[in-house]
Structure formats: structure tokens, C-alpha cells
Specification:
Elements lengths: L2 H6 L4 E4 L3 H5 L7 E2 L9 H6 L4 E5 L3 H12 L4 E6 H8 L1
Parallel strand pairs: 1-2, 1-3, 3-4
Length: about 90
């Protein structure tokens, strides 16, 4: 699956795993902020979202952790890396 196409065509759901303070400092329009530490307790919410999940954070490190966790939960997702990269794909 082509991640750029998914983002441009607004398929799936963009999840930003940074802290709320980081998210308020800049984010992808239409994304949902679910901080890394909240992912396990919000797994049912994540499963109910439109798939695939497009994961981002500041650099890609936290979203990579979430990616591995969610794949083991059977959730279709992609780690895009930085939220700024997602914004570049959108334009």
C-alpha cells in the first residue's frame, strides 16, 4: 500500500502519539492525539477507527514503538515518522 496515496486520499486515520503539549504546538489537521503511554488502554478505541492507522510523532521513534505494538494486536497501521512528513504528503 502506498502511504502517500493513503494520506492524500484521506483513507484511514492519522494518529499522533506525541504528548498533548507537543500536539498543541503543531499538528496534522484532522489527526487524533493519543499519547504513546495511553495507547494500551485505548486499544478498543483504536480498533474502532477507520483503518489503516497512520502513525506519527516528532521524529518517528515513538510512532515506531506504537506501530510494533499495534501490529501485534492485529491492527493495520503504518509508521510515517514525523507529523511534518505527514503534512508534506498531504500537500
Amino acid at each position: 500500500m502506498n502511504i502517500e496515496k493513503i494520506i492524500k486520499e484521506k483513507q484511514g486515520t492519522i494518529i499522533d502519539v506525541r504528548t498533548p503539549m507537543e500536539y498543541r504546538g503543531g499538528n496534522v489537521s484532522g489527526s487524533i492525539n493519543i499519547p504513546l503511554q495511553e495507547i494500551p488502554k485505548r486499544i478498543d478505541e483504536l480498533k474502532s477507527l477507520e483503518m489503516p492507522l497512520v502513525l506519527c510523532c516528532a521524529s518517528g521513534a515513538r510512532s515506531e514503538q506504537v506501530y510494533h505494538y499495534l501490529v501485534h494486536q492485529g491492527i493495520e497501521c503504518f509508521n510515517v515518522g514525523s507529523w511534518q512528513d505527514v503534512n508534506r504528503y498531504k500537500s
